Amino acid sequence: MAGRDMASGDPDGTAGAAGEGSARVDSWIWSVRLVKTRSLGAAACRGGHVRVNGERVKPAHGVRVGDEVRLRHEGQERIVVVKRIIRKRVGAPVAVECYVDNSPPPPPREAVAPAGVRDRGTGRPTKRDRREMERLRGLGGPGGPPAEQ
């Protein structure tokens, strides 16, 4: 039976409808392709960026069908409801069927203005240019917001 998941019996690594049980949350968010690697999923859990049913969870927390998983990743919040438990990483078309995506739409491209973009070929920024870019980004420095005491 090479190539089959022994725990679930399905060749695609998904659990059947009867007796689905649970899976680790870090493994599940990796399996359904919400994060690129399982270690990134575990790091997100440890950093408090993953919530299951409103609670911060550790990487080994079990996720079940019907749970709401909130993931803050790359500046965007993903809100998904678990439809199917999956233990192995599968193709994107199969992975999309394992959850219902309730995430808010990303902001329009026009609303996100690039701060401090320089023209190509203008050379290395001067100290004045660098301070201006930092001021636009809101990083502080001279002429920026005052540092807290």
Key attributes of the depicted protein:
149 residues; alpha+beta; five-stranded antiparallel beta sheet; two-stranded antiparallel ribbon; disordered N terminus
Radius of gyration: 21 Å
Report the principal-axis shape: elongated
Helices, by number, come to 4
Mean pLDDT over the residues: 80
Helix content: 10-25%
Strand content: 15-25%
First and last CA, distance: 66 Å
Question: How many beta-strand segments?
Answer: 7
What class do helices, strands and sheet pairing give? alpha+beta
Order of helices and strands: EHHEEEEEHEH
How would you write the strand order of the largest sheet? Answer: 3-2-5-6-7
**What is the makeup of the main sheet?**
5 strands, antiparallel
Low-confidence runs: 1-9
Describe the structure.
The chain has 149 residues and is of the alpha+beta class. It is built from 4 helices and 7 strands; from the N terminus they run E-H-H-E-E-E-E-E-H-E-H.
How would you concisely characterize the structure shown here?
The protein is of the alpha+beta class and 149 residues long. The protein is built from 4 helices and 7 strands; from the N terminus they run βααβββββαβα.
Set out the fold topology:
Layout (H helix, E strand, L loop, with lengths): L22 E2 H7 L6 H9 L3 E3 L2 E2 L5 E2 L4 E6 L2 E7 L9 H5 L2 E3 L25 H11 L12
